[in-house]
Write a structure and sequence with these properties.
Layout: H1 3-21, E1 52-53, H2 61-67, H3 72-83, H4 100-116, E2 123-126, E3 129-132, E4 144-147, E5 149-153, E6 158-168, H5 186-207, E7 214-221, H6 224-227, H7 229-240, E8 244-251, E9 269-274, H8 284-292, H9 300-314, H10 316-319, E10 322-326, H11 338-343, E11 348-352, E12 366-368, E13 371-373, H12 382-400, E14 410-411, E15 433-436, E16 446-455, E17 463-468, E18 472-475, E19 482-490, E20 499-500, E21 502-503
Helix pairs in contact: 2-12, 3-5, 3-12, 4-5, 5-12, 9-12
Length: 510
């Protein structure tokens, strides 16, 4: 070691010793929350002063007043009416006026049309149909005319940007091919249809005064139990007409929070299932990059779920609900209508009650060995369903009046990384991340952008940073220790879901 090297080493050692001696480390306590989950570990790291703690966005008083219009008695009336049709199997009779899926869809069309009248034409109700071929292996023994019943609300600023609510109105028995026996389908899924009708009723007078910025479709779809037929018909119709669907809110089995094992918190919790990379309609190399860079939990569907969770947290005093975001496309070996939208390349999530009751789902109504089976109305909690409806309406109305989710959010792969060669600039070696995003064309609703970020171990965004209308920023956070998102904030204060960042090297902008 030369004298100069020795001096440098000595001075460096002094600096390290000074830094290490300038503070006293106190390990954080290993505590647990009221729900029993740990409040310790990687969730408190990395330390950073970038941005401010993210506080859930608040909701305006007009929107909150809409939520308070949900009526449990109307929820009950709708469910009872649908149960009274005996069966709503996709292949059940269409000639009877009182039984079967034909009578059910005619009643839905009439009821939705009547509820939409106060909108003064702002809500367009229709019943698109098509001929569904037989699929005996899936429970459809012969070809049928399959019809959805839907309400369309055109956006006043960007009518092509669309958010879709779906709830299937068909029902089934143990044998999915049995189209004659009773299948009440109260929880699965008259509960979600009741929410659809309530949203149309509540929005109609409000829409006579003001339209949302983006479009909304509220649809009761058929054929779910045999193969997601109605939702696929709707999703493919929208895709084929180049509609920009930025979210599907699919409700399925939202009738009770009181099932065993019972806990009072369940009565105020709704699960929201968000799919991961398995449903991304991207090339394999891009999906592998997403996984390799740690963004596998940041798909558009999971960002939609985070949005729902956040806006609900800001209005929980009104909704009376908590949102549990589940990192799965659906429940154990199960599926639903949101998958039709996922396969079409659209973000989609599923709302389902916290504990399903398998004694009263996909069952033939009966009492056997002293046990009562069947999806009867007696096992639906109408107040709970109304609360779930509030979460849906809050999320739909908020997202449709916020700016669009930003696109083309990327980060530099050369800055904050190993040197490429001797000419690599010294400032490229700082452990930082440089983010870029597209600002053109300008969204007329936009006020500014926010960078949101969270530690790798956190499910929800923890920090936010107002970056104005700039198109790039460098942050002193290692890209290995956090994940980053970009969202748009409107002039009205409403915020879009975040979009995820992809490396510039991928040449993918989405």
């Amino acid at each position: 070691m030369t004298p100069l090297q020795g001096l440098v080493y000595f001075l460096g050692a002094i600096n390290i010793a000074h830094a290490q001696g300038s503070y006293a480390y106190v390990p954080p306590p290993a505590t647990f929350g009221a729900n029993g989950f740990a409040n310790w570990g990687a969730g408190i790291w990395p330390p950073s002063n970038v941005g401010v703690p993210l506080v859930p966005q608040s909701t305006d008083s007009e929107t909150l007043s809409l939520l308070n219009e949900f009526e449990a008695t109307r929820i009950r009336s709708t469910i009872q009416t649908l149960v009274n049709f005996g069966t709503r199997h996709t292949a059940s009779t269409t000639t009877s006026k009182t039984r079967g899926i034909g009578a059910a869809r005619q009643w839905l069309m009439k009821e939705m049309t009547e509820l939409a009248k106060p909108s003064n034409g702002a809500i367009k109700v229709s019943m698109p149909c098509y001929q569904q071929p037989a699929a005996p292996a899936e429970g459809l023994p012969f070809a049928v005319k399959l019809c959805n019943v839907q309400a369309e609300i055109k956006g006043s600023v960007d009518s092509n940007r669309t958010y879709v609510y779906t709830g299937h109105y068909d029902s089934r028995r143990l044998n999915s091919s049995d189209y004659t026996g009773d299948a009440p389908g109260a929880d699965d899924n008259a509960s979600a249809v009741a929410i659809a009708l309530e949203m149309v009723r509540i929005l109609a007078p409000a829409l006579a005064k003001n339209s949302p910025s983006a479009s909304i479709i509220i649809a009761a779809v058929a054929g779910e139990e045999q193969g997601l037929y109605g939702s696929n018909f709707l999703a493919q119709t929208l895709k084929n007409t180049s509609v920009n669907v930025q979210g599907n809110f699919n409700d399925d089995i939202v009738g009770s929070g009181s099932n065993a094992p019972f806990d009072p918190l369940n009565q105020h919790t709704i699960r929201v299932f968000g799919a991961g990379t398995d449903y991304l309609t991207l090339s394999d190399d891009v999906i592998q990059e997403i996984i390799a860079t740690g963004y596998q939990d940041d798909t558009p569907s999971r960002h939609l779920g985070r949005f729902i969770q956040e806006v609900n947290a800001g209005a929980a005093q009104t909704t009376g609900m908590e949102v549990a975001l589940i990192y799965k496309p659906d429940r154990f070996f199960r599926g639903g209508d949101h998958e039709s939208f996922l396969k079409a390349g659209f973000p989609g999530v599923r709302f389902t009650e916290p504990q399903e009751d398998f004694f009263h789902q996909h069952q033939d109504p009966r009492t056997q060995d002293g046990v009562v089976y069947g999806d009867e109305i007696a096992y639906v909690d109408f107040d709970y369903t109304a609360r779930v409806g509030k979460v849906n309406l809050l999320s739909l109305w908020s997202i449709a009046n916020a700016p669009a989710t930003p696109s083309n959010f990327t980060y530099d792969t050369n800055i904050g990384f190993l040197a490429a060669n001797l000419q690599t600039p010294a400032n490229y070696l700082d452990n930082v991340i440089k983010l870029y995003w597209k600002t053109e064309p300008v969204d007329p609703l936009l006020d500014h952008y926010e960078i949101v970020w969270r530690a790798m171990a956190s499910q929800q965004w923890t920090h936010m940073l107002n970056v104005g209308t700039a198109n790039n920023i460098t942050l002193p956070i290692s890209k290995d220790n956090a994940v980053f998102g970009l969202r748009a904030v409107g002039k009205n204060g409403k915020k879009s879901p975040a979009t995820y960042a992809l490396a510039v090297a991928s040449q993918y902008f989405g």
